[in-house]
Specification:
single chain; 2 domains; 5-stranded mixed beta sheet; 7 helices; 13 strands; 21% helix; binds ligand MTE
């Protein structure tokens, strides 16, 4: 027990309470030995952890062949911006939350189940999925429904490669993407902002379009967790929320899937959600956008382009009233 002498000296320590020099010197050596032991222990702990992290190769280089035919030549958004200004509500609502919180996402082992109206249902682990087709680098614009955009070099392959492997049957008209919802890894699930899991969907012909990218990396490396590791889709002509992150199931369906944003606010987020400067969001204009990294008081906003500047997809919607099917 430690007895503190009072400040005025009225309660001086007894001589028997004063530790003899040789004893406290020995005690100091002992404490130093324990501290050294603890350092070894923590080094071992760190090594073990590094091993655990080694199974999660976020940041590892990912070889991919550039595909200039499907890439924009606009200046790329800085990696720092693309990885620190994110929407991934499973990790929080603020733009910096995913970068701060997504380290808890365990991306290995990871299996994607492919099911529904197909002849060959399968469960693919993330490494087999990554190797299913040659990886390409495609620099796409990504336009968020909130009115900002980025230009990102994604790594992946056309989702059509996977779709052809699983052979959709005659009933398959839509593809649904269900993403991970695990409250142990995803603190944002506590918020009731969406009806979890985050679900998105495409019509089968949209999913088959060569631009629709099954994405496993960006900037020449494995996807950072906050950008949807280990696998997401990127659909560049649609508002960013259609590009579902951290996918665990791809299901082929006869009927249009119920998608998370459409269920939560059907008048604001249609199933199609093609980037369309002529159809405003009920609460704001969609005519222009702010390019992340180009901020500044005098910087003019960019004009938003129809289909986000991918006119080659227009034929998918021939004859459709895009005000009705927004
Ligand atoms: N996927 C999941 N699972 N959860 C999300 O909250 N947000 C979407 C989309 N995919 C989201 C998601 C939205 S609104 C956008 S704009 C893009 O991811 C953002 O992708 P990025 O952070 O990689 O730029």
């Amino acid at each position: 027990m430690l007895i503190k002498p009072s400040r005025d000296g009225s309660n001086p320590p007894l001589s028997s309470e004063i530790t003899p020099r040789e004893v406290y010197e020995e005690r100091r050596k002992f404490i130093a030995r324990i501290a050294a032991g603890a350092a070894v222990g923590s080094a071992l702990w760190e090594m073990a952890n590094r091993e655990a992290f080694a199974q999660t190769p976020a940041g590892q280089k990912l070889a991919a062949k550039a595909n200039p035919a499907l890439s924009t030549t606009e200046p790329r958004t800085a990696f720092k911006d693309a990885t620190n200004y994110n929407n991934f509500y499973e990790f929080g609502l603020d733009k910096g939350d995913p970068a701060d919180n997504a380290h808890t996402l365990k991306t290995r082992p990871w299996t994607v189940s492919i099911e529904g109206e197909i002849k060959k249902p399968m469960r693919l682990d993330i490494d087999s999925l990554t190797k299913l087709a040659p990886l390409e680098e495609r620099v796409y614009r990504l336009r968020c429904v909130e009115g900002w955009s980025m230009v990102i070099p994604w790594v992946g392959y056309s989702l059509s490669n996977l779709i052809r492997q699983v052979e959709p049957n005659g009933n398959a008209r839509y593809v649904e993407f269900t993403t991970l919802a695990d409250s142990k890894q995803m603190p944002g699930l506590r918020s009731g902002v969406l009806d979890w899991p985050y679900v998105e969907g495409l019509r089968l012909d949209e999913a088959m379009h060569p631009l629709t990218l099954l994405t496993v990396g960006m900037y020449g490396q494995v996807l950072p967790n906050q950008n949807g590791a280990p696998v997401r889709v990127v659909v560049p002509w649609k508002y960013g929320f259609k590009s579902a992150k951290s996918i665990v199931r791809i299901r082929f369906m006869r009927d249009q899937p119920k998608t998370a944003w459409n269920v939560s606010a059907p008048s604001e987020y249609g199933f199609y959600s093609n980037v369309n400067p002529r159809v405003d969001h009920p609460r704001w204009s969609q005519a222009s956008e702010r390019r992340i990294g180009e901020d500044g008081f005098f910087k003019k906003k960019r004009e938003t382009l129809m289909f986000n500047g991918y006119p080659e997809v227009a034929s998918l919607y021939a004859g459709m009233d895009l005000k009705k099917y927004f």
